[in-house]
Amino acid sequence: MQEILGVPAPLLFGQLLIGLINGSFYALLSLGLAVIFGVLNVINFAHGALYMMGAFVAWLLLHHLGIGYWPSLLVAPLIVGVFGIVIERTMLSRLYDLDHLYGLLLTFGLALIIEGTFINFYGVSGQPYAPPEILTGGHNLGFMFLPTYRAWVIVASLIVCIGTWLLVERTRLGAYLRAAVENRELVRAFGINVPLMMTLTYGFAVALAAFAGVLAAPVYTVSPIMGQHLIIVVFAIVVIGGLGSILGSILTGLGIGIVEGLTKTFYPEASSTVVFVIMAIVLILRPNGLFGRPRE
Amino acid sequence: MSVRKTILEVSDLNAWYGESHVLHGVDFEVREGEVVSLLGRNGAGKTTTLRSIMGLVGRRTGSIRFDDQELIDLKPDKVARRGIAYCPEERGIFASLTVEENLLLPPVVQKGGLPIPEIYELFPNLKERLLGASGTRLSGGEQQMLAIGRILRTGAKLLLLDEPTEGLAPVIVQQIGASVRRLQELGFTVLLVEQNFHFAARLADRHYVIEHGRVVDRYQRDDIKTRMGELNELLGV
């Protein structure tokens, strides 16, 4: 069997693939966090719980209404997005003029409530969710076996990430968003309904998290605590990429996924801590993150 | 010439930033097509007056009538939609936007805004700096031209300009002055806040002097020469 640096090639590529999959989820989630932080000035600790909610809503839709994977991919993010809009309107919007810490505490509390509620009804063991027929099976690429569903996850999340990036960087709406990140007050004085824009931004970013949740449902089991581990890593990624940088979060998310995969192959003991080691190094060398701009 | 219609009428305007009461009953009016300046020392309340008109202060009371409609309870975006455009003292050029994105950012709120070519005619430097540059790579003067230029295409009739000459070289100040005069010819109404009294004196049809959050005096353009002494005293020039 062919070996690379003393490691069998299929093992290496297998870990790289898992890294890319994880990286896709990291990218989708950290992208949303970066957008929320940039526009709303809120550190959204509920992001992991909302990702879990996306997966759970898809599972509930299947089990109670018989609604399958493809409609869920749209409907679940929509439902969770509306849920996010309610949170923003009733609670978050009252904290915008206060320190970041308040938003962080509120959303942390919300995460506990959301996860606690799901644990109460469904326990922590997790529910299986089968991928749609057409995405089962896989291809033998010669050097490795590529499961079709995993390839789909990478492609779908890349499309959504790039689409979001284009929306923010290349459209008029995106120019309003970027301007609002710098000076909300002035954008409003130009006649733009900034509070509405902030509400929709939160709803959209939360829907992205839920979309990641639906994508994740067939890969991991659908469990109320599936967002907990992920969210800590995603926060580290946002710090590494630089708060508020969209392209930075996407690239860092994918990159960290790959680095984790490589670490798992060559030095498995460090695979769950490597992210935080990188975070520490980045904070020492580039406190604003790899892609971040200094904020005043 | 017949007396022109009053387009902005501010009466008994009070404004607060948090607990501090900054404006104590400001009264003044601006007629259609006029250039009116608010003069006064630092901290007198000139900038706050402009910000209060836009709704950018914590709380305000009194009356602000624009085009025969009351604005006092409107949020900033609604005020802008009625046709008032604001150019802040710090210019507010967005660093993460290109020059072109900055120029096109304020949405059109009414018909009758200046077409882009006319804005370039007014500020030829802008056109040269358009290609790909980010907003903050511009010089101070270019930033000021961009800040004024971008509010001209929105269709707003009344322009609130806060210290457009601050920190600019004399030759640029002249250029800004010429543009404001040209804007008046084009039918815009301008409410100007200025520290640079000589700049304001050449441009404005009328002046109001603000002190401690109140209008304490008013001058016609022609009064200025005869009353220069008292004006200098009021402004501490």
TrEMBL record, chain A:
Pfam families: BPD_transp_2
Signal peptide: none
Gene Ontology biological-process entries: amino acid transport
Membrane spanning stretches: 12-35, 68-88, 100-122, 149-168, 189-217, 229-254, 266-285
Keywords of this entry: Amino-acid transport, Cell membrane, Membrane, Transmembrane, Transmembrane helix, Transport
Presence of keyword Cell division: no
GO cellular component, one term: plasma membrane
Membrane topology of this protein: Multi-pass membrane protein
Keyword Cell membrane appears in the UniProt entry: yes
GO MF annotation list: transmembrane transporter activity
Entry's localization field: Cell membrane
Similarity comment: Belongs to the binding-protein-dependent transport system permease family. LivHM subfamily.
Name of the protein in its database record: Branched-chain amino acid transport system permease protein
Automatic annotation (TrEMBL), chain B:
GO molecular function: ATP binding; ATP hydrolysis activity; branched-chain amino acid transmembrane transporter activity
One family name in Pfam for this protein: ABC_tran
Keyword Nucleotide-binding: yes
Record-linked PROSITE patterns: ABC_TRANSPORTER_1, ABC_TRANSPORTER_2
SMART domains from the UniProt entry: AAA
Ranges where the ABC transporter domain occurs: 8-237
Keyword Nucleotide-binding attached: yes
GO terms under biological process: L-amino acid transport
Alphabetically ordered keywords of this record: Amino-acid transport, ATP-binding, Nucleotide-binding, Transport
Domain of life assignment: Bacteria
Family according to the record: Belongs to the ABC transporter superfamily.
Protein name: Branched-chain amino acid transport system ATP-binding protein
Organism: Afifella marina DSM 2698
Organism classification: Bacteria, Pseudomonadati, Pseudomonadota, Alphaproteobacteria, Hyphomicrobiales
